[in-house]
Amino acid sequence: MEGIAVALGVCLVLALVSRRLSLPPVPFYIIAGLALGKSGLGLVTPSPISDFFVDLGLVFLLFYVGLGLKPDRLLAKRSAFLKVGLIDLNVNLAIGFVAALALGFPLPDAVVVASAFYISSSVLAFASILENKKMVFRESETVVWMMVFEDIVLVLLIVILHSGFTIPVGMIARFAVVAAVLFLACRWGKRAIRRALDRDDELPVLITFTMVVAAAFVARAIDIPDTLTVIALGAALSTTAPAALERQARPFKDVFLVLFFVFFGISVEFSGEVGLVAIAAVSLLAALSKLLSGVLIGRQIHGSTAAGIEIWSNTIARGEFSIILAALYGSAAASSTIAGIVVATSIAGSFAAKYSPILKQHWVRLRSRHRAGSTHPFIH
């Protein structure tokens, strides 16, 4: 408990500082963990109690992901949704995979690093859109579709990594049965669920917490990933009263997720396998990779490179899902690399999102000068 108290106290201060500086708190939490843990002062070590709270942070975050997966909305705009998602996936996953192999990672770690390289932080993306008052921008909807597509790919990546690159027929069959039961139960019990969540006593909070924890327990009991099961639970419940469920689950997610980030940092131990220079280089490549995919999406969907710069500025940051993959499936070397990528891109992303209008203006000026120069004949 002492370690949890120290971690929460430090994170409370850092949350206040990050808000004061208008920066995302996630990299500060990871840096705090690095300073307190194996890579730093060694003041805090993981314990069974901290592991329990970290698990809760993970499952509540993924429950939130499930609540955002609304099948009817995806089908309504499936063409643009697929186009945006596939560009983002193909560019970033491929570049991340090649970079990981170049650093000498074995295949399993290369997939983990590439996956973390690809998946942006939806929390930071949505926060940057709201904080910088960009909801009216046409590119904001494109960013939302990118994040939803990445959430769906995250589910597939968890299946692949959990199964060790084999085809887990039995696990898939068991998960399909559980998911079907959840969707049918939510469909038949929609009215009862809504009535229960409309109450003004402690019952809605208790119901929400119990459902998430019970889903994780059942998943582990029948040997399917609890991460997938809580996503399926959230997706099933998104057809009932998603706003009420988000409201009840958010306090648990916010507090436990802070512990998830800080204890990830505590567990990271930088080794000689990947040096700091290499981590800095791959972090820069991660930023440029999202720039390339953002520009391609901007041209394809909005017919504008400037739109692509706007998309990039809100999706450059990696965060919670990169850390999840590293914590669940990455080696020590992969985890330290991903920690560096998350810290660097989160900080860079906060500035890019804030100053994206200036970046777009510079691009327009450069393009105008280039066009003006190209109209004059070259004189030898």
TrEMBL record:
Q: Which UniProt keywords apply?
A: Membrane, Transmembrane, Transmembrane helix, Transport
Its membrane topology = Multi-pass membrane protein
Do the record's keywords include Membrane? yes
Query: What's an example GO cellular component term for this entry?
Result: membrane
- Cation/H+ exchanger transmembrane domain: which residues? 11-347
Q: Name one GO biological process term.
A: proton transmembrane transport
Q: Which family does it belong to?
A: Belongs to the monovalent cation:proton antiporter 2 (CPA2) transporter (TC 2.A.37) family.
Q: What is this protein called?
A: K(+)/H(+) antiporter
Q: Which organism is it from?
A: Methanoculleus bourgensis (strain ATCC 43281 / DSM 3045 / OCM 15 / MS2)
Its taxonomic path starts at: Archaea, Methanobacteriati, Methanobacteriota, Stenosarchaea group, Methanomicrobia
